[in-house]
Design brief:
Elements (H helix, E strand, L loop, with lengths): L3 E5 L2 E5 L4 E7 L14 H14 L3 E5 L12 H17 L4 E4 L3 H10 L3 E4 L6 H8 L4 E5 L18 H14 L3 H4 L2 E4 L10 H13 L12 E3 L6 H13 L4 E4 L2 H10 L7
Parallel strand pairs: 3-4, 3-10, 4-5, 5-6, 6-7, 7-8, 9-10
Antiparallel strand pairs: 1-2
Helix pairs in contact: 1-2, 2-3, 3-4, 8-9
């Protein structure tokens, strides 16, 4: 587990023997996760307040479905979806993250009050790095085999894959401005949807969580994105494994289940 403090906008996140719960709200009606969809800022606020009552620490909003089957939105459409809800949630006292790989959307989201940018493009974009370096927002860097989640093929699975991920992150972090590097969290990308063998990918997701300790050499907080499964028992198993192996933050669609398990592990964040 990472020990230390991370700045995210006006917030200070203290890491140690805790696991932050980041609850997902989809502002994309195309999302396959119907129970997380909000179609207006009012619905987003209601859902976020429910998440907070269950125990969520951070609310993530996204206007672009990351599944490769869904259409890629233009910047203006994605911005129109996320900014009003970000403004409403920030006004309600939430720590807000935005899920996007588009620099212009990230910039507008930060201006609206987003404290964290979850970059599913893996910080490959020089423009995204510029936007984040010139802000005080934190950045979650997602490992993705492609320029973005809509350009992926089949995921490469091999015995040393976790170590290769760590090396990729190390190379990326070494090239960042120190002020940005200090605000980075890393995400191994096991919730990205890839084409290929679903069962093999499922086994791979579990294996990456079991190898979470390998990421500690990066000296950055580790975000474990809990893959969304139709069977809630599978989801509970992923969350349990992530907690057992010391996740600093978990990104979840099933907030009530996650928060209860975090309490069982006595890993709640002081409020």
């Amino acid at each position: 587990m990472f020990r230390g403090e991370l700045t995210a906008g006006e917030h200070r996140l203290e890491f140690g023997d805790v696991t932050y719960v980041m609850g997902v709200i989809n502002l994309s009606p195309e999302s396959k996760n119907a129970h997380t969809i909000a179609t207006s800022p009012e619905e987003a606020r209601s859902l976020a307040d429910r998440y907070r009552s269950w125990g969520a620490d951070v609310i993530e909003v996204g206007g672009q479905s990351s599944h490769y089957d869904n259409p890629t939105l233009g910047v203006e459409e994605e911005t129109k979806r996320v900014v009003p809800s970000i403004e409403a949630l920030v006004a309600d006292g939430h720590i807000v993250a935005v899920d996007t790989w588009k620099p212009k959307v990230a910039e507008r989201a930060i201006e609206a009050g987003a404290a964290i940018v979850n970059d599913t493009g893996g910080l490959r974009s020089a423009e995204m790095r510029r936007v984040l370096t010139s802000s005080d927002a934190a950045a979650i860097v997602v490992y993705v085999e492609g320029d973005d989640p809509h350009s992926v093929g089949e995921v490469t699975i091999r015995p040393d894959k976790t170590e290769a991920m760590v090396e990729s992150f190390r190379h990326l972090l070494d090239g960042l401005d120190p002020s940005l590097r200090a605000r980075v969290l890393v995400d191994p990308g096991i919730a990205i949807n890839y084409r290929g063998d679903y069962r093999a990918y499922t086994r791979f997701q579990l294996d990456v969580i079991r190898r979470s300790a390998a990421f500690s050499v990066l000296e950055r907080p580790l975000v474990v994105p809990i893959p969304r499964k139709a069977d809630i028992h599978w989801v509970g198993a992923y969350i349990t494994l992530a907690l057992e192996y010391g996740a600093d933050m978990i990104r979840v669609h099933d907030v009530a289940v996650a928060a209860r398990l975090v309490r069982l592990w006595e890993r709640e964040v002081d409020r």
